[in-house]
Amino acid sequence: MAQLVTIFGGSGFVGRYIARRLAQQGYRVRVAVRRPNEAGFVRTYGVVGQVEPILCNIRDDASVAAAVAGADAVVNCVGILAESGKNQFDTVQTEGAARVARLAAEAGINRMVQISAIGADENSPSEYARTKAAGEAAIQEHMPSAVILRPSIIFGNEDEFFNRFAGMIGPVIPVVGGSTKFQPVYVDDVAAAAVKAINGDVPAGVYELGGPDVRTFRELMQDMLGVIHRRKMIIGVPFFAASIMGSVLDFVQTITLGLFTNGILTKDQVQNLKSDNVVSEDAKGFEAFGIVPTNYHAVLPDYLWKFRPSGQYDAIKASAKNMRG
User: Which end of the chain is more exposed for a tag (fewer CB within 10 A), N or C?
Assistant: First the structure.
């Protein structure tokens, strides 16, 4: 019988690509998510019964134990960019990751892949980065054979980075940390690395994944505007002003008891934007997997075309202007 891999957060942005690749290689895939009724689309990645979504809450021992039961390997893609309700950085990114590793080890599983993030650091001023690092430490304690992947900002069809800024209404794009450097990495390249790790193609340890280009936040926005054929003013927002804005929005979320969720800008995100998000000089990366990372210039037009003035017909209209009556 084909081996079974449980993917926590397997219907999310990164998880769905990993699920698809695993199914293509013949694995059975169990997609552990909070809302399996919304994850039915993952079934189409394989033959009938090969990929199945199941209910799981990463904050609950019994739920996670049931999800890893009978599995040969696990992948944890669960992470949050902002806190909301019971989903706090510590409970999800530290305790949740530790729970998956501990219960997987107790179930006799010795293969695990953790999707972390560049910048994970126990001494970071950002709670997001600190809890990512704490989660990594807990995983290595319970599962020394684990492979930890730290990608830079991830792009792809469903991303919340380029899509978010391309969809902004108005003549201005506000940017916090315009000079902060990123190394955009293609989501399917991250998925390919995860699958190779599951296959045992690389030794245990931490790998930092970045694309072939290092660009500042402002430069990425300029490139994005070029792809969607729009002219907008990119306005730099000073860190002190952004921190005040993030604090106010965080406070509003608190006093409304979660009726308002701060998906705009948090104070912790401002802290993150103060540090470059690029691969360290001495880090192991894509070369260890034999993967040549994809340039974002080659992919952005494939999914950002919908933000062009005339959408899919933009190129046709531009060509028509050159025609003589």
Answer: C
Torsion of CA 211, 42, 65, 102, to 10 degrees: -10
One-letter identity of residue 176: V
pTM exceeds 0.90, yes or no? yes
pLDDT score at 314: 74
What does the pLDDT look like over 82-130, one tens digit per residue?
A: 998 889 999 999 999 999 999 999 999 999 999 999 999 999 999 999 9
CA distance 31 to 9: 7
Q: What is the DSSP string of 274-309?
A: TS-B---TT---GGGGT--PPPGGGTHHHHHGGGST
Torsion of CA 56, 58, 62, 66, to 10 degrees: 50
Q: Are 44 and 31 in contact (CB under 8 A)?
A: no
Instruction: Please list the residues that pair with 216 across neighbouring strands.
Output: 181
Q: Name the strand (E) or helix (H) holding 173.
A: strand 172-176
**CA–CA gap between residue 297 and residue 60 (Å, rounded):** 41
Q: Would you mind telling me the total number of residues written for the chain in this entry?
A: 325
Element (H, E) at 166: helix 162-166
Assign 317 a pLDDT band (cuts: 50, 70, 90): confident
